[in-house]
């Protein structure tokens, strides 16, 4: 890639400048967007670097390279969504392989894994990965793949990537970590022993809520090549434009994460001290059960949190009706603040039993904290919390 952004540069430099001024044709500073589906051969039996857009695309490859470098991986594949990224890994497994996943993983992840298991394409075991003894017990069934999601969605539970990876690899399993909630700016699972990192780049990596895409990063060069081959075989490739937008979003990753985390910490403290709130789940708070582990394993605490309202569902209804500055919407990781109710939105498909099992209560509210001025966020939040405390309209 560009001589001006060698791989040994700091991650901040990779994010801001990878591929900058690498355009040979015109010296464009911003990397061009290549939309062409096909490429002219130099002559008979003489393909150039690219021949067909499913196999490879300069824009998609550049973004994948930048993300791979940020994660400290050997290579990466950009997929059309985060779910497609997970399915890329699942689809390569031999039929009937055992997959070990957290009992409180992202709702869409659980839906995909269960759908594959119901069709006997994989076997699935859901386990509380905070419990090392239970986890070690499950490893006796020889899983092919262990999925780790930390911090978890929506409860922000943190699990020990290094400890789980060591156990899993000793048992012959490969380990993939969903790093969507923190991004490589705040956590690098490959350096902690994982084989793969998975991203919904829809979230913090793109950061502007205008792309659905995903990525799988491999620690090993052969594995990266095999994944790229599999993406071509199955056609699970991100579009050039989505890739280009994602690279554009990546430019400000570190600055966004820092600013959003600063806002998030203040919001979490305000929630903790508020009488309308019974519990706050944010690993940055010293009394969070996984605070110590998060401090060790992460470079920051991120911008995601959830909390429980005293008045349960009626209070949630009043809160989302009155809160300002937080838009009621699914997704997360953009520069604008969002609020979601996991039970009726992101985690509705899980069903009440699996939700109860994972500790996701009906009064739980999830926040993705953005880059707005903190005073506006706090004022908007206060409006929602005051309404949450008020008399029930549906009484
Ligand atoms: C959103 C999300 C996904 C799924 O990604 P899509 O891009 O929506 O397909 C996977 N894991 C986590 C943690 C997520 O938040």
Strand order of the largest sheet: 1-7-6-5-4-2-3
Write down the CATH topology of the largest domain.
Aspartate Aminotransferase, domain 2
Low-pLDDT parts are none
Q: Between the first and last Cα atoms, what is the distance in angstroms? A: 64 Å
Number of helices: 13
Radius of gyration: 21 Å
- Give me the count of strands: 12
Number of domains: 2
What is the average per-residue confidence, as pLDDT, rounded to a whole number? 95
Bound molecules: pyridoxal-5'-phosphate
**Structural class given helices, strands, pairing?**
alpha/beta
CATH class of the largest domain: Alpha Beta
Could you spell the SSE succession in H and E letters?
HHEHEHEHEHEEEHHHEHEHEEHEH
What overall geometry do the principal axes of the alpha carbons give? globular
Q: In the CATH hierarchy, what is the superfamily of the largest domain? A: Type I PLP-dependent aspartate aminotransferase-like (Major domain)
CATH architecture of the largest domain: 3-Layer(aba) Sandwich
Relative helix content:
25-40%
Largest sheet: 7 strands, mixed
Percent strand equals 5-15%
Task: Please explain how this structure is put together.
The chain is an alpha/beta fold. It has two domains: 6-250, Aspartate Aminotransferase, domain 2 (3-Layer(aba) Sandwich); 254-388, Alpha-Beta Complex (Aspartate Aminotransferase, domain 1). The protein is built from 13 helices and twelve strands. The chain has helices spanning 11-17, 58-71, 82-91, 107-118, 132-139, 161-170, 221-234, 240-250, 253-272, 291-297, 312-322, 352-358, 374-389, and strands at 75-79, 97-102, 122-127, 145-149, 174-178, 196-200, 214-218, 277-281, 304-309, 327-328, 338-340, 364-368. The strands form two sheets. Strands 1-7-6-5-4-2-3 form a seven-stranded mixed beta sheet, with helices on both faces. Strand 4 (145-149), helix 6 (161-170) and strand 5 form a beta-alpha-beta unit. Helix 9 runs parallel beside helix 13 (374-389). The protein is globular. The chain starts with 10 loop residues before the first helix and ends in a 6-residue tail after the last helix. The model has no long low-confidence stretch (mean pLDDT 95). Pyridoxal-5'-phosphate binds next to helix 3 and helix 4.
